[in-house]
## 1
Amino acid sequence: MPYILVLYYSRRGTTAEMARRIARGVEEIPNMEARLRSLPPVSTVCEATEDSIPEAGAPYAELEDLRQCAGLALGSPTRFGNMAAPVKYFLDSTSALWMNGALAGKPAGVFTSTSSLHGGQESTLLSMMLPLLHHGMLVLGLPYGETDLLRTRTGGTPYGPSHWAGHENDQPLSEEEKRLCAALGRRLARTAQALNSGRS
């Protein structure tokens, strides 16, 4: 069964919760599966090794997960208006996929969580789109037909779902944020299906 890869790095759990909501949205679409995969932190110690299986949460991603996916949802906490280092580190390892055009023509979307309301959510989402565009992916946002974009007082952007976690990272996802995450999952799944049916 074709799958949407929901790939994320999460330090305090909110980006992981967004990933699970996106995955649920994907699986609302018949004959589509979501594959949750996480990324390990980047070590400050040269050539440090880490277990290949995380203590908790989704398994760590491998390049093959990305190569075989029908679409991608990529998530990261905001770090100074940019994606977190583990996400960039993983993307920097995808040159072989880029050279083979393995991701070209596949749909992709991005999502983020941040502790401050004006902490660079939108610039983080835009920064995550850049390598996906280099891969030739078809980047999807959220249209304003998703009326939660007009009502949200927490996170949510046309560039992709976002979450405001609060200064103590203790704010749960709002109802609007949850619905926008699911909406991205559905949109990616439907787009992947449409593209795949056009190729067959």
## 2
Amino acid sequence: MGKQMLRAALDKALINSLITQYWRVSVVDVTASTQTTLVTRAAAGKVKPGDVITANFQRAGRGRMSRTFEAPKNTALLFSFYLKPARKKEDWGWIPLIAGVSVTQSLKKYNASVKWPNDILINEKKVSGLIAEVTGDGVVVGIGINVGMTHDELPVPTATSLAIEGVTDIDRNHLLANVLTEFESIFTAWDQGEDSVGGIYKSLCGTLGTKVQIHYPNDLIEKGVAVDISALGELILDSGTHVQAGDVVHLR
């Protein structure tokens, strides 16, 4: 499987043959945003848990904290899915972390790690990011993975792609199936009350033990060493601070 396979078009029949009936994957060639589409459908009551939308190209992709996400056609794996958790809403902060774990596990053989809360890094550069939005009594999770991008196609210098990292043994269809399978396994156990994902997350988190700089949404900045993850999924600093939201910079 050569590099050209990293840009191969998505195949709905193949994807659905690789996953369980927990999921129902729809493939579109072009959309404004898989996340916006699914959130809109969820708000209108037109989705079921396990519905997935993936696209070859997004005109207006969205990331965390109102950021945009852009990728040339067929160079990224872009998808969103809908969940209806049974656990109480106070626990739902773990859902984006579970998604981050699922992507990291799927890319573990390529030395991927997760940067708190859910950016996935290879060689300290971002290869994947995600967003999770509560919509009524459900959650829509959107994930983007840089697959076939060249250096010139990267959105920022701090990003990377599987192609740049020398990966040639997987395509977007199999990668999507792998992520969904990982997520189904971890989320189902968590939704039934099991909390082992906390330990899994810590084992994959490259932020722990690292000196970090936190950029909070209110523009405040704090430095410290990341020492633990709380039961609520917060990042705990050596100062005792529990970080609930913010951008993390790893300091070396």
## 3
Amino acid sequence: MAMQAIQYPTEILSALGKEAEEFEEEARLLLALKYYETGKLSTGLAAQLAGMPRSAFISLLGEHGLSPFGETPDELEESLANARKASHCQ
């Protein structure tokens, strides 16, 4: 899979104390996470952007406060609470 280069000033590397390869890998991951978070990419496409298997990307979602179900942990807890309330009302 061919990756397109993103242009950035070399001062960025100095400011972050990173080598180019490390910065580019991290930038791809952060971009993939953001596109997934905003619903613009699926887990599969985001994983491709990040350059990793889908299973590894899904594992990283929790570390970044994201859910593989498209909801935040707080939203999942709220949905579960609402489901419990609804089941007790019947």
## 4
Amino acid sequence: MVCADSQSPKGNGYPVQLANPAGMEQYSGLKHADDQHDAFFLAEMLRLGILPTGYIYPKEERPVRDLLRRRMLLVQLKTVLLLSLQSLITRETGQQITGNQLKQLKEETLKILLPEEHLLLAGETNRSVIAFLEGKVGELETAILKRGKVRPEYEKLRTLPGVGKILSLTIMYETGDIRRFREVANSQSSTATTRRK
């Protein structure tokens, strides 16, 4: 459900509620299903105080959060391509090659490992796209570190083993205001849902 901030021109100064469709089951006796009847249904639930709502993420923080999500997507794509290339080389040569070795792999070395034309084309395609994604991830990280604003919880996240600047920012921005979660289970569920979006 699309919803505007109450402070924005689209909100017209009215308090805005973000209805959570996953948390409601529409009345089974409802005869009509269109925007007007749905709006009346939601308004009635709100009036009765039983409308399940979602969190409206602060507008000013959305750009950095979205950049972090784009970075995460590119990192996932890069990992898929790295594993694919690793599998190809191992299958064709019997050699085990590490992820770090793959990242430093040159075209000349790949020609030696995969001398057959069609295999070389497959491997070089993966290698070149991985390099391209690596560059884009770097660009996004530079923009994120420049624009991202840290909160006190950021420094606490940085004390965790293996959690660097970017991952700390990702956790911080995806979590938002921790006070919006009543229980730990709510936070875990929200984080899992966010990762799927």
